[in-house]
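Please go through this chain and its backbone structure tokens and walk me through the local backbone shapes. Keep your notes short.
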Amino acid sequence: MARLIFAIVTALLLGGCAGANFRTYNYSEDAPKSENFEVFLDGEPCYAYPAPGGDIANFDIAGEVEVRIRPLFKVESAVVRPLSAGVKPKIEDGEIVFSLSKPQLLCVEVNGDLERPLFVFANPPERDAPKKGDADVMFFESGKIHNIEQETFIPSSTTVYIEGGAIVYGTFLAGDNFRASQSRDIRICGRGILSGEKIPWASRRQGKSSNLIQINTTENLRIEGITAVQSPNWTIPIFASSDIVIDGIKTVGKADWDDGIDIVSCRNVLVKNSFIYNRDDCIAIKAAVGYTARYFDHSKPNSVENVAVRDCVLWNGIYGNCLEIGFETRGDEIKNIVFENLDIIHTQDNPWYVRQLKRNPETLTGEMVFTIHNGDRAHVRDVLYKDIRVEDTGAGLIDFRIMFSRYSRDEKRGKISNIRMENISVTSPYNPPYSRIAGFDGDSNVSGITFKNFIVNGKKITSKKDLNLKEFKFAEGLEFQP
């Protein structure tokens, strides 16, 4: 009975198509349509949006649903990631079939093609959704395509609601990116799509660049449920803000410098239940970066503390790193960082680096899965990586390093200490991928790195040799635990 009521209510109130255990969204007839896949839920059609990084099927789920995918080309193989989801697809008469019974954020790869996957985002039913006409709500209605300006401003005490079935082209800005005027109590939510595709900078590097959602000096921020597509630059950078929750978002980007979530000089940040696919860094934690936010006083602490990334799926494209701290670390401390219960489905090699490796096998890249690139004065400490499953890596795995880089501004070098990597399994075409742990000098060193139950290609890592350390200097306290 509860499932029947769910289907009836959502169909009447929110449009789209509803079955006993699912709800799709009502899109405009003018919405772009996938030329690669048709998707059906219990036999009913589900719209697929053709993003540059892959097609996207979004819907709500409240019980068991059969997902049937009809590729518009010959199917030879299919895999659903993350593998830990346990979804085993069948191929029936040229269609890919599997069942889901709970919210899951998945990637369907057909014939091993990473250029044109299908993202299946089965979302939990919405709670506390705003209504059209509510005070202090910027409401983007389903069934419509909305074109907004770049950097549409979000005032304090405002909710931006992108309803499932709405497509919004443009970008948002909260807070002042020059004077650091304080903003507070902002919520961005919904099941709709926010896209930067119409901005020339996202495709042709022409005109004005902007971040898809830029947050400056904001207290009490929530970003929930939306799908963020093809940001012209960093997708969701958050500068000098506190008390932040990012829950259930999906990013699909394939533009240069399109980092997924950048956390810059922030405190008390939680990222959870999200799918992050970007050409550049998936998660980047930095201090006092001045590319778009111009107000940082570099003589101040500008520290980062209490950041957790949990229960997410990540895919790092050919640039950047998957879980990055750095390169810009222009603060006193970056501390109390947790990466926990994550599925990293791909960390792709940059083709340029692959060519260099073929010429010289000793070439070291700087783009890897787990990276701390301390390029300034910060003491990076108390970082936990726990319960992480890596399904695919490039040539490099770990790069914990203190250096002077092209991004550095501080004269002083920092430190890295008390890093723990626990219950991590890695599958890689490289056996094993290489790693690097390197301080800058005797004072700016790396200390206290612990590996516990760290497994690469089925082998438990118990020594520096097992880890394939290409460089190990100005480092101490490396420990391997069973």
